[in-house]
Amino acid sequence: MLFFVMYDIESNKVRYLIAKYLERHGCTRIQRSIFLADLDKAIYDQIKADLTEVQSLYDNHDSIIVCPISTDQLRAMKIIGLDIAVDVITRSRNTLFF
Q1: What CATH number corresponds to the domain at position 80?
Q2: How many domains does the chain fold into?
């Protein structure tokens, strides 16, 4: 399952912990507060549940967005500026050995 996780979190500590959590679970950081992942639905559901729990634990004005996306939509995305290796994240790059 292909999905983005995006957040706007005020607390440096919480933001750092969430970033490390996402990286440990196989998400790839593509911008400071945006991660892209291609993981099993079970892991996607676990990430959503865990982030929902973290959000509810303290009084805040933060927002976390978990957004599923299709491969076609991702490929149609226009990247302006520094290129992102989407093929590596989606594991669709083909390698030939000679």
Answers
A1: 3.30.70.240
A2: 1
